């Protein structure tokens, strides 16, 4: 691969607040310099950085959910740094460069939006554009020798999100329950199997049955038009908010959860719920 990366810049670029993306690329180059860079940054590789990439993406989503636009600015910068980091390592290994990454995504966006950048009409519904998008993605997968229905669904996705994507792919070729009631029947079946597993089977078998139940629950969300990942994030936020309400009420009594018991905390939980409903 030809080296079309940004050439090294003078040292003052690192300290130029208006240096833009060139400044960030130069900072990363300096951090990864084997002779004068940061020892921690030099030691990193794709595998060690990947968890940070996932974490930063979730922190972006968290800032959006909280409508914290000032924090979102910083989180987007952290996420951009992850792209720059991976691109720097890709360049060092001879796989790709930052410029080739930019070129690839730009080419993809132009190719996938012929109604904007080409001669196709723009008067399409959102559903039609989604179908066109999926058709083009399928053609791209075919070009990469990804022939199977489930090929290309990233293994590294969060499990709940990957479950929905796998189910969507299978549904496109007719492998799906036609009615929501059939999904509910399957949930009851899997829940019964989990109870049986808990009583009679090994720890590994219990885990397997629990996974089956989670998978079907994701399918129920898909049939209901609910994003399971978003729904669970909202449930997590609600639990956090209400438990913090319990702690606040206990603090008013001069207590902490460790000083309380389940009966008291459950009563306070109900009080928090009632308070939320009355102020909502």
From TrEMBL:
Source species, domain of life: Bacteria
Reactions this protein catalyses: ATP + H2O = AMP + diphosphate + H(+)
NTP pyrophosphohydrolase MazG-like domain location: 44-117
Record keywords, A-Z: Hydrolase
InterPro entries: MazG-like_dom, NTP-PPase_MazG-like_C, NTP-PPase_MazG-like_N, NTP_PyrPHydrolase_MazG, PRib-ATP_PPHydrolase-like
GO biological process: dATP catabolic process; dGTP catabolic process; dTTP catabolic process; dUTP catabolic process; response to stress; TTP catabolic process; UTP catabolic process
Organism annotation: Sulfitobacter sabulilitoris
GO molecular function: ATP diphosphatase activity
Gene3D superfamilies given in the database record: MazG-like (1.10.287.1080)
Family: Belongs to the nucleoside triphosphate pyrophosphohydrolase family.
Top enzyme category: hydrolase
Name the UniProt record assigns to this protein: Nucleoside triphosphate pyrophosphohydrolase
EC number from the UniProt entry: 3.6.1.8
UniProt xrefs under CDD domains: NTP-PPase_MazG_Cterm, NTP-PPase_MazG_Nterm
């Amino acid at each position: 691969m030809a080296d079309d990366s940004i050439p090294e810049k003078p040292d003052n670029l690192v300290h130029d607040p208006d240096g833009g993306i060139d400044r960030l690329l130069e900072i990363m180059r300096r951090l990864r310099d084997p002779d004068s860079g940061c020892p921690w940054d030099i030691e990193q590789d794709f595998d060690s950085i990947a968890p940070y990439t996932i974490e930063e993406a979730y922190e972006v989503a968290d800032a959006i959910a909280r409508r914290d636009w000032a924090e979102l600015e910083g989180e987007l910068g952290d996420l951009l740094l992850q792209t720059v980091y991976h691109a720097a390592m890709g360049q060092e290994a001879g796989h790709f460069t930052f410029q080739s990454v930019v070129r690839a995504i730009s080419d993809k966006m132009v190719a996938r939006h012929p109604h904007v950048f080409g001669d196709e009409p723009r008067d399409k519904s959102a559903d039609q554009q989604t179908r066109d998008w999926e058709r083009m993605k399928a053609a791209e997968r075919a070009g990469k020798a990804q022939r199977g229905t489930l090929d290309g669904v990233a293994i590294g996705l969060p499990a709940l999100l990957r479950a929905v994507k796998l189910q969507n792919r299978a549904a496109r070729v007719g492998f799906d329950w036609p009615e929501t009631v059939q999904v509910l029947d399957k949930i009851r079946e899997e829940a019964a199997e989990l109870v049986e597993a808990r009583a009679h089977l090994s720890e590994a078998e219990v885990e397997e049955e629990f996974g089956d139940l989670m998978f079907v629950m994701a399918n129920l969300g898909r049939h209901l038009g609910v994003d399971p990942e978003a729904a669970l994030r909202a449930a997590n936020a609600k639990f956090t908010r209400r438990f913090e309400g319990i702690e606040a009420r206990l603090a008013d009594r001069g207590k902490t959860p460790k000083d309380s018991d389940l009966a008291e905390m459950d009563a306070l939980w109900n009080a928090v719920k009632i308070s939320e409903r009355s102020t909502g």
